[in-house]
Structure formats: structure tokens, C-alpha cells
Amino acid sequence: MGVIATNHREINLYYNGETQKGKQTLAYLQSSSKKIWDIDLSKTKVTSTQWTEIANRLGKPIKELINTQHPDFKKEYGHTKDLQTDQDWLKVLANNPKVVTQPILLLDNKAIQIDTPSEVLAFLKDND
Question: Is residue 128 pLDDT above 60, yes or no?
Fold first, then answer.
């Protein structure tokens, strides 16, 4: 069992509240009958353990949660991307969570990255 508690009646949303995609995704979710735990990455620190669990649930390496084209990433790390280990990538997330590629939704034992905010509707329909 992981450190992030989820069930079929509650949704955890990890998003950047300073982006349109994050705001719109949250708005769609708020129309659901499920309880929403919204974790705004611009305001709330997520631990390395939680990021690791999120990446594992998504079936992706931690570095794939990071937008290496984001201006903040480029400013801090340049174009070299010479980060070698998961610990290096976790430090990026800890120090600058704005570089997360897109909102991440956790429901029960499922996890998805949101490309388009409206795609959460189909996901909710399947799980109501």
C-alpha cells in the first residue's frame, strides 16, 4: 500500500493552479459527485515519496513527469538535461513543481495524466 490514500469515491488531482489546463481540469472535476482532493502544485509541496508513487501508478519514469521544455526548467538546467538518476529528477520536482507536464488524476488504484481537461469526463463516467 502506498502513502497516497485513494478510493473509488474520492479523486486526487495534482495540478498547477496557475495554468489554464490546471484550472479547467479542476472545474470539470468539481462537477463530479465525487470528493475532490485538489493539490495545487504552486501552493503545496509534494514529497519525493509521493512523486515516486505517482510515477509508479502511471507506469512512467519520474523524468517523464517533467516538461523539459518549460521555461523554468530551461532557465535552471539549460538544454543539457544531464540529470542521471531518479533522485536528480525528484529534486527538480521538489524545487520547481511548475515543470510538471500536465495535471495528474488519481482515483482508486488508477492514475492518468490529463492532456485535455474535458477528457476527465469520460474517466468519471466510467467510474461513477
Answer: no
Q: What is the pLDDT of residues 89-122, one digit of tens each?
A: 999 998 888 899 899 999 888 889 999 998 888 7
When mean pLDDT is compared across 4-8, 22-26, 50-54, the lowest value belongs to 4-8
Q: Decide if 16 contacts 98 (C-beta within 8 A).
A: yes
The three three-digit cell numbers of residue 42, written as one number: 504552486
CA atoms of 125 and 66, how far apart (whole Å): 28
Q: What are phi and psi of 97, to 5 degrees?
A: -65, -10
109: its cell numbers: 488504484
Q: Where are the domains of the chain?
A: 10-103+116-127
Q: Domain 10-103+116-127, what fold?
A: Glutaredoxin (3.40.30)
Residue 111: exposed, middle, or buried by beta-carbon count in 10 A (0-12, 13-18, 19+)?
Answer: buried
Quick one: cell of 69?
521544455
* Parallel/antiparallel/unpaired status of strands 35-40 and 10-15: parallel
Task: Specify the higher pLDDT residue, 47 or 123.
Answer: 47
Whether the model pTM is above 0.85: yes
